[in-house]
Write a structure and sequence with these properties.
single chain, binds iron/sulfur cluster, 14% strand
C-alpha cells in the first residue's frame, strides 16, 4: 500500500461517512487512487471515478457553486446578479443533460436519467436559488462577511481535520455565525449534519480565537427558507474532539488492502463511484455484467 495517502491524511466528516459505509469504497477514494505511477491505467481510472458525483449531490454542489459565485461578488462590494445566477444554473443543467457520463455516477454505472429527472432538478434548483435571493440573503447582506467556502484545516488533539464552511459572517453584536446551506429536505436533518456543525464550531473557535459562547451555527434549508440553529455545550465539543481523535486513529491503523472489506448493498453499490471497478459492485448491478 502506498504511503502518500498518510502524508496527505486529515480527518473529515465526509471521509468518516464513506469509511462507515463501505471500507473498500473508502480505499478506492482515498488510497487506491494514489497506487502506482501517474499514467498507470488503474490509477488514472480511480482518479477519474473519485471525482464523479451522485446526481442529487451534483445538483446540490451546483447550487453551492452558484451561491459561491455570488459571495465572490459580494466580497468585492458588487451587487448580486440574480438573473446571471439563474442563467448559469440552467446552462449547467443543460450541459450535463447532454453529457451525463462525464460526471454523474448513476450514468457511469449504466443507469439512465430521464428528461423528467433533469426537469425536476432544474425547477428545484431554481426554486432554491429564488429562495436564496428573496428570503435568505436579505438577512445576511448587512453582516460582515468573514469567509465563504474556503478549504481549511486545523488540529484536534494532534489530528489534522479538514473543513469547508459555506459562509461565516459576523453580526453587529460581534457574534460569529456559521452557516451551512442545505439543498435537501429538513427531514434529512440527521446526526451527520449535527456532527458536521459541531466540527465547524470547533474550527471557528480555533480560527477566530473566540469563545464557544460567541459562535453560533445554523443549517439553512434553501428549499423552504427555514433555518435550524445547532447548539453545542462545552462537554459535547470535548466529546467530539475525543471521538475525532479516536476515529482518525482507526483510519490510520490500516496496514494492507485486506483491511478494507467491501460492504455491498443494492442501492449503495448502484450509487457508488467505484461500482464499475469493484468485483462486488459489478455482481450487484446486472447492467454492468
Ligand atoms: S460497489 Fe458496493 S461493495 Fe463495491 S466499493 Fe462500492 S459500495 Fe463498496
Amino acid at each position: 500500500m502506498n504511503t502518500y495517502w498518510r502524508k496527505m491524511f486529515g480527518w473529515s466528516k465526509t471521509r468518516q461517512v464513506l469509511w462507515d459505509e463501505c471500507k473498500l469504497a473508502y480505499y478506492y477514494q482515498y488510497i487506491g487512487k494514489w497506487e502506482g505511477f501517474p499514467g498507470d491505467p488503474k490509477r488514472e481510472r480511480l482518479q477519474r471515478l473519485s471525482k464523479i458525483k451522485k446526481f442529487i449531490f451534483w445538483k446540490g454542489e451546483l447550487i453551492h457553486e452558484v451561491i459561491r459565485n455570488q459571495m465572490a461578488l459580494h466580497s468585492r462590494n458588487k451587487p448580486l446578479l440574480e438573473d446571471g445566477a439563474r442563467k448559469y444554473f440552467i446552462q449547467q443543467v443543460e450541459e450535463i443533460k447532454q453529457h451525463p457520463k462525464t460526471i454523474i455516477t448513476e450514468t457511469v454505472n449504466g443507469l439512465t436519467l430521464s428528461d423528467d429527472q433533469f426537469e425536476a432538478a432544474r425547477s428545484d434548483g431554481l426554486k432554491q436559488l429564488d429562495n436564496f435571493f428573496s428570503i435568505i440573503w436579505p438577512d445576511y447582506r448587512e453582516r460582515r462577511l468573514l469567509e465563504y467556502e474556503r478549504l481549511n484545516s486545523f488540529q484536534v488533539r494532534q489530528t489534522k481535520v479538514w473543513v469547508q464552511v459555506d459562509l461565516i459572517t459576523q453580526t453587529d453584536e460581534e457574534k460569529t455565525v456559521i452557516t451551512d446551506w442545505k439543498t435537501g429536505d429538513e427531514r434529512w436533518l440527521d446526526s451527520n449534519a449535527d456532527e458536521q456543525m459541531g466540527v465547524y464550531i470547533l474550527w471557528a473557535i480555533d480560527r477566530f480565537s473566540v469563545p464557544a459562547a460567541q459562535v453560533s451555527a445554523e443549517l439553512v434549508f434553501l428549499r423552504s427558507g427555514e433555518s435550524h440553529a445547532i447548539v453545542k455545550t462545552q462537554d459535547q465539543l470535548e466529546e467530539l474532539k475525543e471521538s475525532i481523535a479516536t476515529r482518525a486513529k482507526e483510519m490510520l491503523a490500516v496496514q494492507t488492502e485486506t483491511d478494507f472489506p467491501p460492504d455491498p448493498a443494492d442501492r449503495r453499490c448502484r450509487e457508488c463511484n467505484f461500482a464499475t471497478i469493484c468485483p462486488e459492485g459489478k455482481q450487484r448491478i446486472p447492467l454492468l455484467n
